[in-house]
Write a structure and sequence with these properties.
The protein has 186 residues and is mainly beta. The chain is 12% helix and 45% strand. The protein has two helices and nine strands.
């Protein structure tokens, strides 16, 4: 005689939700802080203070690679005269940098960048979006950047975009890590 025990539906649903939440939190990638040749030793955030060209020195015509669009961590591109703009970075406290979009001497927009100094990098906080609907639909987006200074007096930016999701039991994902270099204007 075989005795069968069934698990109540409520406990199964809670278990599935907890499992999805665990994979959502643990599955996000992060940028690595590796030692790069020509990297300056940074002991305080004030080292990043300055005015930088908005256009990457490698890709002069790409709006997406502009310094401003990398810092705002959004999918939507901000096209405010990106070729002539300069970006002023100024330190606020120990964990924030204020980025200001300058057109000439006029400030057009500003944002606060939260993060921390880690191994000569300013590493931004993760910008995560998690939408879990267990067994039906789920989506995870993770955006992050890190800044470092080179001995060539240029600001370097590494950007991570990690996305994945599922519909029923079908999974899909995409990872993209990019690096850009911006010359110091002043």
């Amino acid at each position: 005689m075989t005795l069968r025990r069934s698990i109540p539906a409520g406990k199964t649903a809670v278990g599935v939700v907890l499992l999805c939440t665990f994979f959502s939190v643990c599955g996000c990638a992060s940028l690595k802080q590796t030692r790069k040749e020509g990297m300056l030793e940074i002991s305080e955030l004030k080292a990043f203070d300055g005015i930088y060209n908005n256009v990457s020195s490698q890709e002069e015509d790409a709006e997406f690679s502009s310094l401003w669009n990398q810092l705002i961590l959004r999918d939507k591109i901000d096209l405010l005269d990106f070729r002539n703009a300069k970006i002023r970075l100024s330190t606020i406290g120990n964990n924030q940098i204020k980025a200001t979009w300058l057109l000439g001497d006029t400030a057009k927009k500003s944002i606060l960048l939260d993060g921390k100094l880690k191994d000569n990098y300013f590493v931004s906080r993760h910008n995560r979006i998690i939408i879990p609907i267990p067994l039906i639909y789920g989506q995870i987006k993770n955006n992050q950047f890190q800044l470092w200074l080179g001995q060539d007096n240029q600001l370097h930016l590494d950007r991570l975009q990690n996305r994945w999701g599922w519909v029923f039991v079908f999974l899909a994902g995409a990872d993209n890590t990019s690096s850009y270099k911006y010359e110091k204007a002043k």
